[in-house]
Amino acid sequence: MAALDLEEQEQLSAIKAWWNQWGNAITWAVIVVSAVIIGQQAWNWYNRDQSVKASAVYDALQEAALAGNLKKTREAAGELTEHYAGSPYAALGALLSAKVHVENSDTKTARAQLEWVKDKAPEEVLRDLARLRLAYVLIEEQSFDDALKLLDGKPDASLEARFFEARGDLHLMRDQLEDARKAYQSALDKLDADIKASGEGSSLAQQSYRGVVEIKLDAVGGKQ
Q: What architecture is the 44-153 domain classified under in CATH?
């Protein structure tokens, strides 16, 4: 029995020595892992909660936009960009609000909202869409050089044809007909490639848009 007690004492001493060396590190590792798990759960809950709230604000923005209420549209867009900037609803809300304000000749507000999307939207395609729309606002204001800078650089593939078309529109406004023709031709080539890739899945919208670009190309000299 005494030998067994001695063996137990030795085991106990070994455990204590091991704990003195490693116990503190293990305790902190457990705390860190637990914190990460709890943090992930809290973050997921927060994101779901934020998404629901942002969705409600976006719905209100849509209603205000349809009613033509610029004040409520602007306020809802501001709430989204201020409190839910990480949500896709913020960028979509700002784009919709900008559209409504352009239609009501308030390009100052529209430009501010498009600038926000261009700089802050989480998805590249939304940033590129804001660049495109902002360029058209500048073209309407005859700020051609600034608009051209926005159209530089390769956009998301889904918007390439529209960027070419926008360059064509800009050159047309500046009476640069050959440059406009080349840009429209590039837009048409990209559309034809997209339609070919889609095959039987090509949409009526794609075909209709192609027709619009072809009309513009014909107006400045057509294919050469």
A: Alpha Horseshoe (1.25)
Distance CA 93, CA 117 (A): 10
DSSP letter for 123, please: S
The residue type of 55 is S
pLDDT tens, position by position, for the chain (224 residues)?
A: 444 455 555 555 555 555 555 545 544 554 444 444 434 554 454 466 678 888 899 999 999 999 999 999 999 999 999 998 888 888 999 999 999 999 999 999 999 999 999 999 988 999 999 999 999 999 999 999 999 999 998 999 999 999 999 999 999 999 999 999 999 999 999 999 988 888 766 678 888 889 999 999 999 988 87
Structure tokens given for 71: 């004040």
Q: Which residues contact 69 (CB under 8 A, 6 or more apart)?
A: none
Residue 73: both structure tokens together: 């549209």
Provide, for the chain, the percentages of residues in helix, strand and coil under a 3-state DSSP scheme, each rounded to the nearest 5. Answer: 85, 0, 15
Residues recorded for the chain? 224
List alpha helices for 84-140, DSSP H: 88-103, 107-120, 124-140
Say if CB 170 and CB 151 are below 8 A apart: yes
Judged by DSSP in three states, 34 sits in helix
Q: Choose among 61, 118, 130, 114: nearest CA to 89.
A: 61
